Amino acid sequence: MEGFKILALAFILCGFQFYTAQCKSCTIEKNVNGTIAVGENTYSRQKCWAIPVPFGHFIQLQLKNMYQSGASCQKENVKINIAGTSDVYQFCISDSNTNPITAFDNVTITHYVSTNYYRYTGFTLEYAIKTIECLNRNSFECDNDTCVSEDRVCDGVKDCKNRADEIGCERVYQRSPGGERGGRVLVETEKNCCMVMEGEHPPGRRSSLLSIG
């Protein structure tokens, strides 16, 4: 579903000409996380990949490696452009710094090669799109790309699509003195939030705080 949303967003962007150049010539990545891997014998090429980032999300990218073709930075490089900014990140074979890049808008990755003879060239780049809430240290990770705020954990409402925020939560309520309009007040807080069976990987990170109400 997330992949479909991102693809739909790409078409919308193309329709409004915000992403026209990239949509016409670049491969559009449709998944919320993935790997772009290239490896071939060539002497000249320029290929690009466009990754739409939905509103309320961010993307992290990391160049894992570049094949040692022996070409200079001017003759072979990988560039990452972030839409709406002048930020351009260029990577060369000789670079040792491949720290992750975080962006809050659409990105374009371009692989450029221009040499005098055939050589094996390529690179591997990994990316992941997540909700903005995942940037908060105490947020609860529903899955690899979605988070909710800690006050939504064990509150009786399934905010995560996989319901991870309510798994294993045992709660006791009583009616508040305010009557019908007063709703319910949590009397006994979390007994066992987000319990995981032995050997299983937890679906999310447990929150230390709970909301009342």
Notable characteristics:
mainly beta, two-stranded antiparallel ribbon, seven-stranded mixed beta sheet, 213 residues, disordered C terminus, 39% strand, single chain, 2 helices, signal
Structural commentary:
There is one protein chain. The protein is mainly beta. The protein contains two helices and eleven strands, in the order ααβββββββββββ. It has helices at residues 2-15, 20-25; strands at residues 27-28, 33-51, 57-66, 76-82, 88-91, 101-103, 107-131, 140-141, 147-148, 172-175, 184-188. Strands 1, 2, 3, 4, 5, 6 and 7 form a seven-stranded mixed beta sheet that branches. A hairpin with a 5-residue loop joins β4 (76-82) and β5 (88-91). The chain is elongated, with a radius of gyration of 23 Å. Residues 10-22, 172-203 and 206-213 have low confidence and may be disordered.
Low-pLDDT segments: 10-22, 172-203, 206-213
- Report the total helices: 2
The general outline is elongated
Q: In terms of structural class, how would the helical and strand content be classed? A: mainly beta
Encode the helix/strand succession as letters: HHEEEEEEEEEEE
| Average pLDDT metric | 75
Straight-line distance between termini: 32 Å
Q: How much helical structure, as a percent, in the residues?
A: under 10%
Portion in beta strands = 35-45%
Number of strands: 11
Biggest sheet overview: 7 strands, mixed
